[in-house]
Amino acid sequence: MIPLNKRLIACGVLGLAAVAAGIIAFSSVEGQDGARGKTSYAPVQEEDFNAVVKRMSEAKPAVMKKQMDLLNQRYDLSDKPGQAKMSRGKPVQAGVRVKLPNGVTWEQLANMSPEEIQQKGLFPKGFLPLPHPNHMEGGMVFPQVHIDEIKKQEGRDLTRFDLDFDLPQHLIAEFPAAIYLTTRPDLGDVSQGKLVTIDNYYELFNGVLNPKQLEGLRLLVTPFPQQQFNATHDRRSLKASLGVTCFDCHTNGHTNAATHLVGDIRPQQYRHRIDVPTLRGVNIQRLFGSQRAMKTIEDFTEFEQRAAYFDGDPVIATKKGVNPVERGSQAHFMAEFQALLDFPPAPKLRWDGKLDPARATESELRGQDVFFNRGQCATCHTAPYYTDNLMHNLQVERFFKEQDVNGRWASADGPIKTFPLRGIKDSPPYLHDGRLLTLEDTVEFFNLVLELKLTDQEKKDLVAFLLTL
């Protein structure tokens, strides 16, 4: 009879072997369509690093052309600024950018049933889930303007040799974003127009934050290993890297529209693209993550470091250099700073989040009425912060047949959390995966999905109201 301690050791060795086999098997089945893959683990890269760089660099033009062809098929990507401005002056893009199927109008679509739209294949392509720039590869991808600034300040290169960010700069949030603090509203934008990094966080915030908050901010701008940016040979940066920071996506506590894939879904083609949400106003939120419904910002902060940085794969995380933050101090300090991030000023709103009639235009007031009544927006987005802190399933899949979209299997999204609408004009693109480029696109999407049948004037007024939030 084998002694217990030897039996346990043998079981452990067999278990590790099974995990390793599962990881290797993943690569051969992950690209197949179907509801289930053969393994949950990421593939182990056995190929020589220089060979990977050569192969993926040569494939990059075709990869990006395929994605840009898709975007141009779906959207009008041109630069068409409206009159409204973001907090630091960047123009808000105006107009509906989603392209309609040939021979149909928005009014005609709105008068069709979901079943008819599905049967005729008339659901606008821009309303389908948006795939990652290379969905079967995935990983963090940053806008070029952020890559350039980080390289300038820190010498850290967030360029990927295999793919680029896909959305034009004029269609995403302004860079760098303003920072407003709940504790010091008198200071206005405390970023002073700078991107906050490990190089300047101390000079900008010393004397404004308490020591715990300052340490939390330091951790938020400190780079740690991540799936695509680390020191191992199976990375997607040319040089070995210290990694990424929380603020590489949530720039200045807001967003730069960097993209990634959710870590909680398998197989790969079912994973959702993430449009990085703003951290402004997390102090009034009670759910975190688009679908995971984590209950505290501390939970989310710890989750990001332990799992999201490595696509939810703790085996790969161990290899590449996971950084498990200490819950009682580090996660707490990081969360305490995040909880100070305020929404931008909204001078036309009263204390209850509603418009002050003395400051609002007639169109904005009409839009507010649509929002709280015919538009049904307030069913989920309740004042004053315009969230109900719940999850909702829009059942958008009733409008289209399941299909492959550049490696993303478009099917049911399931329940998604209600994001706050305060400061919404500062946070394009919209919806959890960024499939809606403008507020006008967003109004058309919900008008169709909620079967509202709003008039053109009601849509215009609703956009006018959203711009005041």
Polypeptide structure, described:
The protein is mostly helical and 469 residues long. It has one domain. The chain contains 14 helices and 8 strands. The strands form 4 sheets. Strands 1-2 form a two-stranded antiparallel sheet. A two-stranded antiparallel sheet has the order 3-4. A two-stranded antiparallel ribbon has the order 5-8. A hairpin with a 2-residue loop joins strand 6 and strand 7. Helix 7 crosses helix 11, helix 9 packs across helix 11 and helix 12 crosses helix 14.
Task: Summarize the SSE layout with pairings.
Blueprint: H1 4-29, H2 49-74, E1 81-85, E2 91-93, H3 106-110, H4 114-120, H5 144-154, H6 201-205, H7 211-220, H8 246-249, E3 259-261, E4 273-275, H9 297-306, H10 314-320, H11 327-338, H12 362-372, E5 391-392, E6 403-405, E7 408-410, E8 416-417, H13 439-449, H14 456-466
Antiparallel strand pairs: 1-2, 3-4, 5-8, 6-7
Helix pairs in contact: 7-11, 9-11, 12-14, 13-14
Task: Summarize this structure as a short list of keywords or feature phrases.
33% helix, disordered N terminus, 469 residues, 8 strands, globular, 14 helices, two-stranded antiparallel ribbon, mainly alpha
